[in-house]
Each structure stands twice: as structure tokens, then as C-alpha cells.
Amino acid sequence: MTPLDLLSPGQTMRIAALASHDPAATLRLHEMGFDEGVTVSLLHRGPFGQDPIAVQVGTMTVGLRRALAALVLTVPA
């Protein structure tokens, strides 16, 4: 499994799990559409490869901090 923050721009994967022990972080990700089985693509990174990153989740585009994106574990689609 590959954390979402380590994907290359343009790479498409499927969400396998959320690796958070913090219920608030897990809830935040679920509210933004990060659920198991959903297809995600890394669109681009912030300046110098840092925060925020832009991710396509299903049909939505979402901006995330890399620390939160690291909690989303992905597998090949």
C-alpha cells in the first residue's frame, strides 16, 4: 500500500484504507469523500513539492495537507 502523499502527479490509485488513529482525522477524510474503494489521482503539489496537494477524489477536486494525505493508503486501481 502506498500513502496518497507519495504518489506521482497524474498517478491514479484506489483507496484501500485510512491509517489514522485519530477519529477526527478519519471523520474529516470521510466527509471529503475519502472512502475505501474510491479512485483517487494526485493532480499537483504545492510550491517546491510541499503543501497543499490537489487530489481528485471521484469527481471532486480536494486540497489537502501532506500530513493528512499520508493517512490515505492506496493500491493500484
Which SSEs are present, and which pair or pack?
Blueprint: E1 2-3, E2 12-18, H1 23-31, E3 39-45, E4 53-57, E5 60-64, H2 66-69, E6 72-76
Keywords: Iron
Domain Ferrous iron transporter FeoA-like: 2-76
Pfam families: FeoA (PF04023)
What does this structure look like?
Keywords: Iron. Residues 2-76 form the Ferrous iron transporter FeoA-like domain. Pfam families: FeoA. GO terms for molecular function: transition metal ion binding. The protein has 77 residues and is an alpha+beta fold. It has one domain (2-76): SH3 type barrels, CATH 2.30.30. It has helices spanning 23-31, 66-69; strands at residues 2-3, 12-18, 39-45, 53-57, 60-64, 72-76. The protein is globular, with a radius of gyration of 11 Å. It starts with a strand and ends with a strand. The mean pLDDT is 94.
